[in-house]
Amino acid sequence: MMDWSRLISAKRFGLEEYHVERHENRSEFQRDYDRLVFSAPFRRLQNKTQVFPLPGSIFVHNRLTHSLEVSCVGRSLGNDVAKAILALRPCLQHTYLPEIGAIVSAACLAHDLGNPPFGHSGERAISTYFSEGGGAELKSRWFAGGQLTAAQWEDFTHFEGNANAFRLLTHQFEGRRKGGFVLTYTTLASIVKYPYASSLAGGKSKFGFFTTEEQSFRRIAEELGICKKSDAPLHYARHPLVYLVEAADDICYQLMDIEDAHKLKILTTAETKELLFAYFTPGRRAHILSVFEKVSDINEQVAYLRSSAIGLLVQECVKAFLAGEQSIMEGTFEGSLIDHISPLPAAAYARCAKLSKEKIYCARDVLDIELAGFRIITTLLELMIDAVCSPEKTYSRLLIGRVSSQYNIMAPTLYERIQAVLDYISGMTDVFALDLYRKINGNSLPAV
Predict the structure, then answer these.
(1) Which of 42, 58, 279, 312 lies at a C-alpha separation of 20 to 30 Å from 288?
(2) CA–CA dist 170, 177 (Å, integer)
């Protein structure tokens, strides 16, 4: 059974020996939030695809706006859960439990930092390069030479943005300080949605940390008292706050994708309103219609419907968390919070998910950006991995010379060199990746 007083710690990863209680206006978890906002990887999210192509004549969400919105919803979820738990157990008032809103808000900002350019197609491009593409052809040679282990290979064939975010936040890149972003243990644990090694991912292709960060996660889990999920050495239960981060993400991407699709005319106004009205009881629908009598702008009406649906889902997920708190603390809770909401909003959410798969994620513009992203990332991977495998080649030296010194591209082991390539490519924005691809292919030349 996990313990709230231990699960929420202000100890900072990489600065453990300097851990002291500070009494200032900002809590340690608010410092985490601020540190993320002012970071370069967070700024780069403004030019990373969420779902729809960037840029466009109609403003739609990118990874940055998505992360900010998820953070807002996460703060509401955390604050509401904290108030409810404290009302039942006032003895926790003097722990860090009142800070849950700030912790979840910071974790939500960080949850997509490890995603490569071009949305989820970027993740698939990296994984399939190793499972089906050029990397797969080199596998036997790498294994025969003892250059890679089976566990390391699993890291590549199941490449996961969530695991990459944990690496980005904790890894000491060249010339950087120990501990990466030096975030609190609890904020770091709150972003690990799949708290097990890649070797345990199976057919899900989801895991929480690469081989290089296994000991880092183990240290955090043991410090916070996160319970083990099985006898496997690196298979833990989720930190309870992960459920709130996941719920905030689930709520935002589902509803904001519907709103974006309406703006792009993929969905009609009638379809959009029907989807969103389905969340509400007849009484609540009547109230919303009375608001529409005062607000005639169609986009504003859709925005009001969307915000009302978000508010409803926040309430539902808070109730689901509180109802399942014991099993969450025991590490036995199954599924997400969305899976445990009331029947009416659950049915409406399922309809939104179904229509999104049928009409939004299969829209031509969405598929076009995925196809282009797949090609760009695959090409960059092929060239960069060939370069780190054969650094003596003239062309390899040119490519390697272009990589920032923070990436240890000439590390002593092949695994570390490939990881450095993945660090470099996954950190790119869509525009940077496209520009590099064009230059490499001779389609774009620098100004002279």
Answers:
(1) 58
(2) 10
CB-based contacts of 141: which residues, under 8 Å, 6+ apart? none
Backbone angles phi and psi of 221, in degrees to 5: -60, -40
Q: Would you state the torsion angle of the CA atoms of residues 268, 288, 318, 11, taken in this order, to the nearest 10 degrees? A: 80
Rounded-to-integer distance, Cα 109 and Cα 388, Å: 33
115: its two tokens = 């995603």
Helix (H) or strand (E) holding 128, with range, is helix 119-131
Structure tokens at 164: 């990459």
Q: How far apart are CA 158 and CA 204, in angstroms?
A: 9
For residue range 259-306, list pLDDT tens digits in order.
988 988 889 999 999 999 999 999 999 999 999 999 999 999 999 999
Q: Which two tokens stand for residue 205?
A: 């292709």
C-alpha of 308 from chain center: 25
Query: What is the Cα–Cα distance from 100 to 222, expressed in whole angstroms?
Result: 20
Whether the CB-CB separation of 356 and 262 falls below 8 Å is answered with no
Q: Any idea how long the chain is? A: 448
C-beta of residue 423 within 8 angstroms of C-beta of residue 407: yes
**With contact defined as beta carbons under 8 Å apart, do 226 and 185 qualify?**
no
353: phi then psi, degrees, rounded to nearest 5: -65, -40
Q: Is 304 exposed, middle or buried (0-12, 13-18, 19+ CB in 10 A)?
A: middle
